[in-house]
Write a structure and sequence with these properties.
17% strand, signal, hydrolase activity, Rossmann fold, AB_hydrolase, alpha/beta, hydrolase, 12 helices
Length: 303
């Protein structure tokens, strides 16, 4: 295994001293564009300038489910590309029921935008798709960021999301309280972070009470995720062959994919770094938007 760097972000010099990100009007007011990919109209946004950084969304997530603070922080130094994948949100098409199919679509989307190679940031389900993308199409990925995600269950240390969490995550509609449970801790810090994130979303659009997804969307995504997590296709073994710089990040209290899963990813992928954020859950990248973006940018600048 190549040399790896382990960062534990706590109340130390590792913590960012940057001022809290201001939500830029330019990010919030950009209207989605559409582009035809393999015959389907796909909604997307491009925010900022620089090297393309393509964000792959979570289970049931759409364009509207990225925290504005994260988009503002990342787009200050990158050309951030976000999109509704096939059949999600306002995009047309049929959702792939394998993560291999989802990864292939990312390549087709890049081809349509004439992006030969990009940095890829995948969160949760998007992080699983990003792993498959790096395995199947390594020449299209420059650097890889895996946020709040999991490897397949090829190691006994990998834990699947508890039934209670999954039951809430698959509700036809999620309340603001559901979102807080799914993505944040129940400590004073976590409750405050959940409230602040919800307020940022509500500056842009109503979120939480209704979703833009349905059982028709949930089912194929769930089938693909379950197959990957069951290691159908031997994806776990293939992680060791990823020959790209990889940044792995998670909150220390993620219920969906415990931090031990991130540690397994770190051990399995040779050229990887690991960052853990304190008192944070699945949405640590929203809670620590500035600090996470700082780590991402440092990683992307590193030779």
């Amino acid at each position: 295994m190549a040399a790896c760097i382990l960062f534990i972000l706590g109340l130390s010099s590792c913590a960012s001293t940057a001022n809290p990100t201001r939500i830029g009007e330019s990010s919030n007011q950009i209207q989605p564009n559409t582009i035809v990919v393999n015959g389907s109209k796909i909604s997307y946004k491009i925010i900022g300038q620089g090297t393309p950084l393509i964000l792959l969304q979570r289970f049931r997530g759409s364009l509207a489910d990225w925290d504005p603070a994260l988009l503002a922080a990342l787009s200050a130094s990158n050309q951030v590309v976000i999109f509704d994948s096939l059949g999600v949100g306002t995009s047309e098409g049929e959702i792939p029921n394998t993560l291999g199919g989802a990864a292939d679509f990312v390549v087709s989307f890049m081809d349509a935008l004439k992006i030969e190679q990009a940095n890829i940031l995948g969160w949760s389900l998007g992080g699983m798709t990003a792993q498959v993308l790096a395995i199947k199409h390594p020449n299209r990925v420059n650097k890889l960021i895996l946020a709040g995600t999991t490897p397949p269950a090829g190691d006994k240390s990998v834990h699947l999301a508890p039934d209670e969490w999954t039951a809430v995550a698959t509700k036809p509609q999620n309340s603001a309280a559901d979102m807080a449970y799914l993505f944040y801790t129940t400590t004073v810090v976590g409750v405050k972070a959940a409230q602040e994130s919800q307020e940022r979303f509500e500056q842009v659009h109503q979120r939480g009470v209704e979703t833009k997804t349905s059982p028709e969307i949930i089912m194929p995504q769930a089938i693909g995720a379950r197959a990957y997590m069951a290691n159908k296709g031997n994806w776990y073994e293939q992680l060791a062959g990823i020959d790209l710089p990889v940044l792995i990040a998670n909150g220390d209290s993620d219920i969906a994919f415990p931090v031990t899963n991130s540690m397994v990813l770190h051990r399995q992928i040779p050229n990887s770094n690991l960052v853990i954020y304190p008192d944070a859950g699945h949405a640590f990248l929203f809670q620590y938007a500035d600090q996470f973006s700082d780590h991402v940018n440092q990683f992307l600048r590193r030779e």
